[in-house]
Amino acid sequence: MKLYDSRRAPNPRRVRWFMAEKGIEDIEIVDVDIFGGQHRQPDYLAKAGLPNVPALEIDETTCITESVAICRYLESLVPEPNLFGRDPRETAVIEMWTRRAE
Length: 102
Known about the structure:
Radius of gyration: 14 Å
Shape: globular
Structural class: alpha+beta
Helix content: 40-55%
Largest sheet: 4 strands, mixed
Number of strands: 4
């Protein structure tokens, strides 16, 4: 897997924090120069579909954009520590604090 990242953008930062909390270190990080327009180039658009970062390339045919979608995918691969909640109450409280932080 590859994570297309931009160190100066907030949404990729969420994924990096999530990976750090999970101890995920085996995903290749590819820096994307969004100020140089790299995310708008045909080769990037062919992978991601949109000029968005972050993007998680899972395999040759699947690339996920949107930071929360990427984090949910990683949560399903690495369920512990649980960062999205184990029951409806815990999930709702986590979601509330996530929205407040945004």
